[in-house]
Amino acid sequence: MAAIIFALLFLVGAGLIAVGVMLLRRKQDWLAVGMGVVSMIVGSSWLVAMVVAISARIDPFPLLGTVVLTGIGVAAFTFWVIMLAECLAREEANSLDKLTWVIVLIGTNIVGALLYFFVRRIHQGNT
Fold this sequence. Notes:
The protein is mostly helical and 127 residues long. 87% of the residues lie in helices and 0% in strands. It is built from 5 helices and no strands. Helix 1 (2-24) packs antiparallel against helix 2 (30-56) and helix 3 (61-90) runs antiparallel to helix 4. The protein is elongated, with a radius of gyration of 18 Å.
């Protein structure tokens, strides 16, 4: 039973790397590229944690929990940086919208990034 669990956990790490490679192929979209890099880093860290746990004969779940939480934090930070960069690049230079969105993004971090993504980025993509 333990061997099946370890095999499934290895497949999760390999799957994260594969998703990262697929996202990296979308070179026009900075969000996809950034999340692809994060996915590959988390997948590689996941596999390293599994190898360490197996070689040290310890329970892998505390290590994997740390990898998952760190990955979520890195993904959120990457998403925030990409949304801030897109705001600076896409909004008009002399626009009050640009200043407002930059203040919102810096002041509210991930919440502001999510707001910008759903309110502005998707709307700008449809027009």
